[in-house]
Amino acid sequence: MVHGEIWTIKELFVYPNEYIYWSIQIVMYPFMTGLVAGAFVLSSLYHVFGINQLKEMARFALVFSFALLFVAPLTLMLHLQFPERGINVLMTPHFTSAIAAFGIVFMTYSCIVASELWFLYRKHFITIVLALRNKQDKRLMERGKYLLFNTLTLGTYDVSEGALHRDEKAVKILAGVGIPVACFLHGYAGFIFGSVKANALWMTPLMPVIFIMSAGVSGIALCMLTYIITMEIRKILAKRRKAPARMPYVEKLRSIEFYEIQITSKYLLIFLIFSVTLELLDLIFRGYTGVKSWDVLRSVIYEKDFISIFVLQYGIGNFIPLILFSLPRITIRRALIGALMVLFGVFMMRWNVVIGGQAFSLSFAGYMHYVMPIVPHDVESFKEGLAGALSIMAMPFILFWIINKIFPVFAENEQG
Amino acid sequence: MTLGLTGIALPLAAFEIIDPRKLMAQEASDKSKVRWVFLVDTYKCTGCGLCVKACKIENEIPYDANVTRTWVERYVLTKSGQVFVDSPEGARDGFTTTKIDLASAGTKDINKDDIEKAFFVPKLCNQCDNPPCVQVCPVGATYQTPDGVVLVDNKWCIGCGYCIMGCPYGVRFFHPVHHVADKCNFCYHRITKGMKTVCVDACPFEARQIGNIRNPNDPVTKTILTKRVGVLKEEYGTKPQVFYIGLSKEVK
């Protein structure tokens, strides 16, 4: 069977070789890079602009961004016909291609996030190493831990006030440099789509900007969501008194959580308004200019994909959360529901761009419908089906759990 | 004395008897003198599909796989102004029924008396002068040869599908066996050895022709220069090099 044939249903006249070649993993790819970029921008708000209210969220967002970072290229790997040749992009980059620089941009960005994390957690590594160094009869686990953290210190054990001050400065610079790079990373994902002149739905110079804005929306929403869940777990733990004695009391936790969510939701709202405005502008412009492709696009947007665009993306994903976050006296529960809806909305936006862009034939005389493989029956239907998508969705959370062991997000509070 | 002999020996060595056959071969391999183009006469096409069949066999595209390097489209225009287009299995077996294939929407039988006009249009890679597929390939696995043909290095292609997305003509696909991007290459293995493409050879009506636009004496060049010919989807700026005689505005 030809690649794409199992999930493509053709209607009317479609060229013989046309299938939905870019499926669910390509929906996941901008979704994931968007989350990475958004989470990073959120963390930078504190470090660069000194928005002190976001202190706790900033640390959280940076670690989460790092966890997401590993997942974004994985989506591409699952999509490639030859994942083992993926390295070719770095070996012989063909720079007229929008994908060619992905490796370089992505590596640069990874280095920035990793070094920012290092400066942020340097003191933490040294504290652990020094505590373990003098300990006699280290157990196997402790020896492993010592080795790992000793490596992470990179051989420097200076925790003098001057050194720590320089760390802070480095974090600030890296966070500052990171903002344009994060925007570039995701704007660039938008460019990959926006520059395809053969695709009438994708080709718009607004695409990179729309992608950056929706990245901000989704990144902040995911940080909010994960933050709320983590804080709720901490509260339950504190209530059960199983938590370490130094953990702040439930009331204190509640007030920190509320405070952080209140501020973060304001930033979310700003990004959301920009994102929706740009998307609607694009739609109105297409309708108004009504070029050759508009007939087929109109039938896709207003008829075939009406539910997924206007009900799921704009309705549930944008307008309801817009109301939820705009109403005064935000509550944690409202923020949680809003964040979930926003995340769903951004996912649907990616879906409507990637799948919607392939919903019509290049002949403008036929349509293609995507039927996502639910039950996998071979490698392809696993990778590019529901199972593959869910694996990708779950991965950042698992990675966050592991990375959190090395870069403890709540360390400072617990010590305080 | 020795010096004098050397002086005579050198210019003698510089002389070489030139073999005219060798010279001709050199000229043929000089790529700047060759630019392959294709000419399709839609008036002559009957939709028999022999070109598609021959192409599939010659280029080892699995016969029953629903992808093809070349295909034939049938256009039926009714008196009420409706346009119907189909290409069942790329017209591999020709058009065996008058019913229009509407894919998942079933078939449509059009009354003979309602038909205003109908014709066939063969399609293949346009070997564009400004190929978007080459532009978007992230690893340079697809490239343009000096004689204008766009080829795919199937040992280097990573299978991202960006070239498939970038082509406005839908000529690219993933090869069902090799799993890399594949497309028509004007039978490059044949044309570079002085043969014609297999579809040209297989066409009983001379609807398909291949030629070298840099050669003014080539009959294809003469036709393109002197007759009214059209190209597909000019608005994309790809500068396609497959020319059509009798192109109609309904052609997608």
Give an overview of the whole structure:
- The complex is a heterodimer of chains A (416) and B (252).
- Chain A has a two-stranded antiparallel ribbon.
- By secondary structure, chain A is mainly alpha-helical.
- In chain A, helix 6 crosses helix 7.
- Chain A contains 14 helices and two strands, in the order E-H-H-H-H-H-H-H-H-H-H-H-E-H-H-H.
- A four-stranded mixed beta sheet of chain B has the order 11-1-13-12.
- Chain B has eight helices and 13 strands.
- Chain B is of the alpha+beta class and 252 residues long.
- Helices cover 23% and strands 21% of the residues of chain B.
- Chains A and B meet through strand 1 and helix 3 of A and strand 3, helix 4, helix 5 and strand 9 of B.
Number of strands of chain B: 13
Strands side by side in the biggest sheet of chain A: 1-2
Shape call of chain A: globular
Total of helices of chain A: 14
Question: Topology as H/E string of chain A?
Answer: EHHHHHHHHHHHEHHH
Low-confidence stretches of chain A: none
Tell me roughly what share of residues is in helical segments of chain B.
10-25%
C-alpha Rg of chain B, in Å?
Answer: 23 Å
How many beta-strand runs of chain A? 2
User: What is the general shape of chain B?
Assistant: globular
How far do the termini of chain A sit from each other?
A: 61 Å
Supply the key terms.
heterodimer; A: 416 residues; mainly alpha; 14 helices; globular; B: 252 residues; alpha+beta; 8 helices
Quick summary:
Chain A is mostly helical and 416 residues long. Chain A has helices at 24-49, 55-79, 88-91, 102-133, 140-152, 161-194, 207-240, 250-289, 294-304, 306-326, 332-354, 379-383, 386-406, 411-415, and strands at residues 8-12, 366-370.
Task: Summarize the topology.
The complex is a heterodimer of chains A (416) and B (252).
Chain A: E1 8-12, H1 24-49, H2 55-79, H3 88-91, H4 102-133, H5 140-152, H6 161-194, H7 207-240, H8 250-289, H9 294-304, H10 306-326, H11 332-354, E2 366-370, H12 379-383, H13 386-406, H14 411-415
Antiparallel strand pairs in A: 1-2
Chain B: H1 2-14, H2 20-29, E1 36-41, H3 50-58, E2 71-78, E3 83-86, E4 100-101, E5 107-108, E6 115-123, H4 132-136, E7 142-144, E8 150-152, H5 162-166, E9 173-174, E10 181-182, H6 188-191, H7 198-202, E11 208-212, H8 219-226, E12 229-230, E13 242-245
Parallel strand pairs in B: 1-13
Antiparallel strand pairs in B: 1-11, 2-3, 2-6, 4-5, 7-8, 9-10, 12-13
